[in-house]
Amino acid sequence: MKRIIFLITAVISYLWLDWRGFMKKLGERARLSNLKIPKFLFPAESISISPAHQLVELGELSKAQEYLAAKGKLTISERKLKNRVTQTLFELGLKPVEVTEKIPSKKGVKALYFLTNSLPFTTSGYTKRSQSLMEAVAENGVVIHAATRLGYPLTIGKWPKSSTYLLGGIRYHNIFPWVFSRSPAKRYGKTIELLARLAVDLGVTVIHTTTNFPNAIVANRVAAKLGLPWIYEVRGELESTWLSKLPKDKQRSAEKSEYYQLARAQETNYANAANAVVVLSEISKSQLIRRGITPEKIFVIPNSVEQKLFDKEYDKSALREKHGIAEDAVVVGTVSSIVGYEGLDTLLRALVSLPDQYRGLIVGDGVDRPRLENLAKSLGVNSRLDFVGNQNPQTIDEWYKLLDIFVVPRKDTAVCRTVTPIKALTAQALGIPVITSDLPALREVTGGVESYAIPEDSRDLMEKIIAIKPHSQGVEWAASRTWNQAAKKLVQIYRGITS
């Protein structure tokens, strides 16, 4: 009953705040689930938006507020926008609170990992890293529990059997209040209350969370309430991801926008406030140092792979026969979320110029899939390209092994220049030659031993695909990046800030 009431109030709140955005997400959820929902229920993309909406899209929140205040009588859509802007500015204005730590516990380290989402409800590089890192931490003798954001996974339309579950030896806790409040202050308050209660019940000695800053707001206040140290793990860049979704001609000006600057400042503020900061790359560490974070508190724990990947053997011929792929086909593809900044349209255009024995395989799903499927048809490569959707994480390695060449053709955006994905490293561990866009983050995560193509240049990608040769350097590089090695470093950090 509690979850039913929560779900009803959450839907009402989402509709009240942003019915267009909610219906768009509902439509994407329906597409992923192969559900047919009448099109008239969804807002038309072509509907013109007000100047206030345009200001918000470009990150000028206060200017949008001023416009709405001066206008007087507002449409329903503008009233909802006003509420949403008010809530966003509230969140962007929540500064870190000071944490007065208690006397360190002598019981040993026990960690609580506060996460945005988790397996099995969300399959992504984020959830893969969380699960793998926690399993390795546990294997290194530290008790670690996970908790997910308020209302998850109900808030993404997934119904859990219980509010707690065990996965790979890790206990996950979902946080469900009775209602989903429209007030961000009340939502934060309830999340902090319930997470602090869980931390006390579990007897944890350190709070650990990840980007984005809304998670840090909670972790910081729970740590302050309980007198515990906390860690901020910088994985992605909220503001850079937002920027990447804008048209290219608007990105430079949007980088100076109020939203971008405030969001970036929040990330910096909470990194400064944390006892330790974990980053995924040297690039990310350098950026944080330039933004004023003390170098000594920043630790690089890169994306990694399981040791078992190096020991796995596959019958490639049997796998190809199982999936209807010709023995002599050269399969080029990726395992990825299908979103715009991944640059998969570059792969499709490269496929046009490749000989007929080259086939494309895209494993994964996302909002950009319908556009790419239409593009494949218009380019005439749909007969040589397979979109197979999301696959079982337990058997995902088989899909990697179907590939002769693994590509990460990301676009040259701020987020892609900084954020390091797991997927290329997994391909390296499995002995698959990799081609990525020539971007700093992608060179770092692959050790500089793979092939690198000019971003968004389909001809250069095509030439790199034809020229690539099998090699062993990728496997050797991946062997230096295992989750057990990463966990040892994280355990040292835990012990360092709790002693």
From TrEMBL:
Glycosyltransferase subfamily 4-like N-terminal domain residues: 125-303
Any one of the GO BP annotations: liposaccharide metabolic process
Domain Glycosyl transferase family stretches: 316-466
The entry's keywords: Glycosyltransferase, Transferase
GO function term, MF aspect, one: hexosyltransferase activity
SUPFAM superfamilies: UDP-Glycosyltransferase/glycogen phosphorylase
Membrane recorded as keyword: no
Keyword Transferase carried by entry: yes
Pfam families, per the entry: Glyco_trans_4_4, Glycos_transf_1
PANTHER family documented for this protein: SULFOQUINOVOSYL TRANSFERASE SQD2
Protein name, entry field: Glycosyltransferase
